[in-house]
Amino acid sequence: MSNIDNIRNFAIIAHIDHGKSTIADRIIHSCGGLTEREMKAQVLDSMDIERERGITIKAQTVKLNYKAKDGKDYILNIIDTPGHVDFSYEVSRSLYACEGSILIVDSTQGVEAQTLANVYQALDINHEIIPVLNKVDLPASDLDRTKTQIEEVIGIDTEGAIPCSGKTGEGIEDILEQIIKVLPSPKGESLGDLKCLLVDSWYDTYLGVVILVRVIDGKISKNMKIKMMSTNQEYIVEKVGVFTPKAKDINELNAGEIGFITTGIKVLSETKVGDTICDVAKPLKEALPGFKPSKPVVFCGLFPVDSSEYQKLKDGLAKLQLNDASFSFETESSSALGLGFRCGFLGLLHLEIVTERLEREFDVNLLTTTPGVVYKVHMNKGDIIDLHNPSSLPNPTLIKMIEEPWIKATIITPDEYLGSIIKMCQDKRGVQTNLSYSGNRAVVNYELPLNEVVFDFNDRLKSMTSGYASFDYEIIEHKEGDLVKLGILVNAEPVDALAMMIHKDFAQKIGREVCEKLKDLIPRHNFMIPVQAAIGGKIIARETIKGFKKDVLTKIHGGGATDRKRKLLEKQKKGKARSKQFGRVEIPQEAFIGVLKIQKE
């Protein structure tokens, strides 16, 4: 049994690409967690997609043994967290399971928006923080400037900041010694009743649901009867283990330790992240303060390109949901696209990752509709409806008002780009709340409507600042907005997959752009096709796709307007009118994709 004073639990937090996973690799290597042969870069990023994109999506844990310079043996539990804003709920869970954090800042780039967001989360729960300046081997590294920024923007003392390089391994020993000296050991009663936090859970094909736990008090051992407090379900522990990064079975986990258990649960929904686990024989009176469940903020429809792949898509979604409880889906049918699913995501990167995993792991060709956010529709009768899909908006005469979600955005940028960023935020109906400087970098805060941000805000921010600006957001509240449903009609038939909620001031412009784009993308038919954008019954933009004209007069020789010619032209006109009335306009996939692209541009 390990002594609780010799345990250190810590998370690694940083902005995207500042070197969290690489430094985790170095720490694992220097503690001998894996042999030379087993080491590979970003050893904790286990999904192919994480390795290809070079981002961390799931938080991972490792237990290491470290012999410090004072001769004592210590146990280090590392949690490597994602840096991307869409996965910030993974970060908040990881921080709850630790007592301290290592804050990594890239010494060539300085403090970025996500650095701030993650540090504030750690400070909120009273973490000790060790600042580490990474990438000192690069010529562009500027330690003094980075230290000043950390002090000015975040307000942490950087006297003990450790310069290091994840690439060369310089400074890794110092980090390990600092972890032992500065970070507190976990508080907990090894002999008390079991109190345990459920940090994460995922599905394993052989073991069922694997649950990652942090034991606060007591101990959890094999064959013990445990209870989940939120569902009141009881289970028997079948397996207890730790990751060293390889999974290793042990007999028990004691207070202060992080490890995994399996209990034969088959569905992930029974394991609520943030739940408290206790002993059936000695139940607890109150649960631990868990963390806020993640709420999907972006919704979009996923449809199989080939309708025969519907079942395959359904199975794929169900399997992905086993490993990612933050993503939700329900069936939806569309007259233009057939059967599909309405899915909720934490943000656009999350959407991109899920769709890519579906296409890659389950081999389904997908079509995604316009991403949208959740609106609160207040009816005249007083009830409130959550609107996920614009096509199901109730009749406007029954609606009192519509509220949309707003976010608080923090943007950090070199000051030469500030003007264009402020203009973009104003175009997106933003309200500036604060602006401060640290050296030549501006930190600007805006309140913005989420539906303006969800589409292309990050891409445009990166392109207008050559990638130097960074952006982080959190949802604050719903506010009333002057919103309308923009419908698209092709040959007088509404196309539900292209309907969108939009602010009244932008409706005309977007409507015109969508019509122009569809005019180029829908192939010509034998008859003329009107393409219209409408708000309710009012048409606000129109384009016409000309029909093919067959020359029916070629077989008649001789000049002049004869009855015979007139009859043929009349007959052709009637035929066109009939085919326009009964003809179906097939809207090709490219047209949907093209319209989604406009909204991005």
Describe the fold and architecture.
It is a single chain. The protein is an alpha+beta fold and 601 residues long. Helices cover 27% and strands 33% of the residues. It has five domains: 4-182, P-loop containing nucleotide triphosphate hydrolases (Rossmann fold), CATH 3.40.50.300; 195-279, Beta Barrel (Elongation Factor Tu (Ef-tu), domain 3); 298-373, Elongation Factor G (Translational Gtpase), domain 3 (Alpha-Beta Plaits); 376-481, Alpha-Beta Plaits (2-Layer Sandwich), CATH 3.30.70; 485-600, Alpha-Beta Plaits (2-Layer Sandwich). Strands 11-10-16-7-8-15-12-13 form an eight-stranded antiparallel sheet. Strand 22 (375-379) and strand 23 form a beta hairpin. It starts with 6 loop residues before the first strand and ends with a helix.
Give a brief rundown of this model.
By secondary structure, the chain is an alpha+beta fold.
